[in-house]
Write a structure and sequence with these properties.
Elements: H1 5-35, H2 41-69, H3 72-90, H4 109-143
Length: about 140
Amino acid sequence: MAFNFTAFSYIVALIGDAFLIFFAIFHVIAFDELKTDYKNPIDQCNSLNPLVLPEYLLHIFLNILFLACGEWFSLCINIPLIAYHIWRYKNRPVMTGPGLYDPTTVLASDNLTKNIREGWIKLAIYLISFFYYIYGMVYSLIST
């Protein structure tokens, strides 16, 4: 049994995806707190905005690893979310710093609902990816 670049990519992806799952859970909890009026929107946006770029960059980095080792299916299941991340960041509100969430518009009911739905969908994609990465890692270790 040899340890190859594909197995390394899946191990890194498992660790990275665990962080992405925590980011998605934090996203859902943060917007639920806003919905139930437990937290100030300015404080919540100040805690969410610094996490946007690290989440996006980590997700893109993991998929660059899959591109480098030729894991096309793993790459293809993540391309729609990467495209959404790029589109979302390009169409963000005008702000002074990096991030997506503007405290003046985050409490609008349509934005709040959209952000909660976005968090749940990202969580589902990251969880499905996590279990697929376990399968891919085991398969790449066994097949070599």
